[in-house]
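Take a look at the protein record below and tell me what you see:
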Amino acid sequence: GASFHDDHIIEIASMVVVPDNVNIPNPDFTSLCHTSHHIFQKVSDITSSMLSNQPTFSNVFQQFVNWIQSCVQELQQQNAVSYHPVLVAHHGFGFDFPFLVAEIKRHKLDEIFRTVDLYYADTLYDARRLVKSGSSIFKTWTDQEQKKLGMGSLFAKCFPGES
């Protein structure tokens, strides 16, 4: 759904992005979350029956936090450098991050959430800033292309012929 006040997270998926010379044993995290609320098929291919035997958001979120902490610990052990996890989403400030915070509050997971020192980045916000600044990356884009800064448009423009 589209309302972080009424709808619920049904999947958490994430990946670690590191240089090629760094090895993370479990670089991906993905899990569906059980919910008894109606699922909007237009938003996702996930169905209610797919969620019926899945763990609750509370359980999945705890696993997600543990995964983030283990990835950071692994990176720090390999490189003797301090790392801070960054959640990156396209339109994250307008959609993903408010959904996550609302779900955390709904399930009273604030204390668990505070154990991870997360930073946030929104690629849509950054792309819009680049357009406004007149960045050369967008010089060949038409006005219409610049208005459609969705991930699909960005991917098609930056990697033509790939899908």
